[in-house]
Amino acid sequence: MSSRTVQPGLSFEYIMWIFTRISGLSLILLSAIGLASAFALGARTQVDLPTLVRWTFFPNPNHVINSNIPDVTLGWANAFWQVMQILIVFFAVTHGFNGLRVIIEDYIGQSIAKPFIRGFIFLLWGFSLVVAIYVVIFS
User: Fold this and answer.
1) Is residue 47, in this structure, part of any structural domain at all?
2) Residues 6 or more apart from 105 whose CB is under 8 A from it?
3) Residues with Cβ < 8 Å from 51, sequence gap 6 or more?
4) What CATH number is associated with residue 22?
5) Contact in structure between 89 and 73 (CB atoms under 8 Å)
6) How many domains does the chain have?
7) C-beta of residue 37 within 8 angstroms of C-beta of residue 58
8) 10 Å Cβ neighbour count for 4?
9) Contact at 8 Å (CB) between 47 and 54?
10) pLDDT tens-digit series, residues 10-31
11) Which residue segment(s) compose the domain that 122 sits in?
């Protein structure tokens, strides 16, 4: 029978465990803010459900351009919504890639490939963030 001792201090795994909880809650909060704002800016009567979902998670004027809402860009094309989109993308991508990292590391165990897989996941994470932020800013 082996006894396991808990080491005090912050480890990478503990920080990512905390981040996963915080990012999950922040995604719920950001989506609630997006949904409430979509309703406040006219989505409750003038768009269908798929458009409302796109509007909630990616409040981009291009998503509602075919709606009956007059001058869509006034309400949505500003820095606040770009920051909202970037936060949603950051939390979602980081949350997802951390989950992928945990699952892969559970299956490979202690292997020589572990640092390479971590590096590859980190590169994919960085590339995904750069592309997503580019799309948010320049769309």
Assistant:
1) yes
2) 114, 117, 118
3) 43, 63, 64, 67
4) 1.20.1300
5) no
6) 1
7) no
8) 5
9) no
10) 888 889 999 999 999 999 999 8
11) 12-138
Question: What three-state secondary structure class fits 5?
Answer: coil
Q: Is the pTM of this model over 0.85?
A: no
70 pLDDT tier (thresholds 50, 70, 90): low
Instruction: Give the whole-angstrom CA distance, residue 132 versus residue 128.
Output: 6
Tokens of 35: 């949904």
Distances in whole angstroms, Cα of residue 48 to Cα of each of 32, 44, 66: 18, 9, 11
Q: DSSP for 49-104?
A: HHHHHHHHHS--GGGGTTSS-TTHHHHHSSHHHHHHHHHHHHHHHHHHHHHHHHHH
**61 falls within a domain:** yes
Structure tokens at 30: 């950001």
Pairwise CA distance, residues 43 & 62, whole Å? 14
Structure tokens at 74: 């006034």
Residue 3 within any structural domain of the chain: no
